[in-house]
Amino acid sequence: METIGVIDYGMGNLHSLAKSLERVAGNQRVLVSYDVKALLECDRLVLPGVGGVRACMNELRRLELSELVVEAARKRPLLGVCLGMQVLLDRSDENGGVATLGLIPGAVVRFPDPPPADPALRQERLKVPHMGWNRVHQTRPHPLWDGVPDDSWFYFVHSYYAAPQNPAHTLGTAEYSLNFAAVVARDNVVGVQFHPEKSQDVGLRLLANFTTWDGEGG
Amino acid sequence: MLAKRVIPCLDIDAGRVVKGVRFEDLRDAGDPVEVARRYDLQGADEIVFLDITASADERPTLFKTVEAVACEIYVPLTVGGGVRGCADVRALLSAGADKVSINTAAVADPDFVTEAGERYGVQCIVVAIDAKRVKPRPGQAGQPPKWRVYTHGGRKATELDAVEWARTMAAKGAGELLVTSMDRDGTKAGYDLELLSAIADAVTVPVVASGGVGTLEHLYQGFSEGGADAVLAASIFHNGTYTVGQAKQYLAERGIRVRM
Q1: From the list A114, A153, A198, which residue is nearest B3 (CB)?
Q2: Which single residue of A8, A95, B164, B239 has CA 20 to 30 Å from A51?
Q3: Is this complex's ipTM strictly greater than 0.90?
Q4: Structural domains present in chain A
Q5: Is the Cβ of A126 closer than 8 Å to some Cβ of chain B?
Q6: pLDDT by residue (tens digit) across A181-196?
């Protein structure tokens, strides 16, 4: 039986993500754990994350999980979600600048603050955080997109966004004052800025695609 | 582009959905799991739970309810009421909440909002502002309206001005503001649009409009005149007057970008 490991480093809400994975995982087992040995035996890994990037990296390092993620990224399919996606890049500007895992070249930067209120433009003010449902445009084919209609709505909550150096590492974009990478991919590593576990049917479909992905075609 | 959100709100008392008028006269409106699942299927963009009793001995009931609901829905869930410290935030997030709403504890210690945001991420820290219009003193008619912040589920008045307080909370790191007009809550007379637009103009974080929806037109006004990023309603959905889907269809026809 194959196992999907959800990396638990003590921050945020793994409950929904684990439940959603269980729902789509068929007869695979979903293991939520911070045990490096147990996680290294998993066939696929999911790196979730909410909260500040500094606290996230501190916990990943303290539990020796950052090495695990880098090790896993050599061969296993790995999915980063939200902050778990952002730490796949080299560095983040959040919390005064933090070095991250460096699996995908590029940085994580903040959305520009909205201009001062203009009553005439009120409906168009782009607030930070970018919070709510936005459409994701698929920029190239990938097994993760199987059965997910282009420009589907996904649920986002974030103030920083990933800017991969290599355009080939962007798999999907969303528009919020600018076009940003909503999905990144490099070989067997993928990351989604939105919350698939909070994005109803299309989110579950994307998770299901990950659970059957062999890490190829990325 | 980002869609405007429609959010059904479930007031929870001792494990049941209830609905009151002006924060009083509570009536039973169903089982939280069933009601939440119904709204998820209807296309709700998020669901909000407010634990309106929030007495210490009923917290375990709330956690069980949150857990049961989180298993059944695939949209974000915000839970508020009775959040006193980081331990409560953590417990609610662990039970399956995606965001936690804070009111009284933020007034008692504004730095708590900063602390909780740094620990769990600002995206999951919602500050709820319960605001009531200050009656103008004789001779002050014609002055711009003012609102006072209330805590403890609307039972306790503070000295805080609601618009100033919204500014403070955004600066302290609130990820979103849930603005409820106590004058309008449960009255079906529509949102207090002046309150909403005053706050929406004052901050750069998302604002959720709450209190007073009786018609679909009111939802539209929350966006068009109130400047809200999301509209919250309870009675019109609980009573079955409208489904969430009908509300979104109406908004789309009026030119509001919603997720259909």
Answers
A1: A153
A2: B164
A3: no
A4: 3-212 (3.40.50.880)
A5: yes
A6: 999 999 999 999 999 9
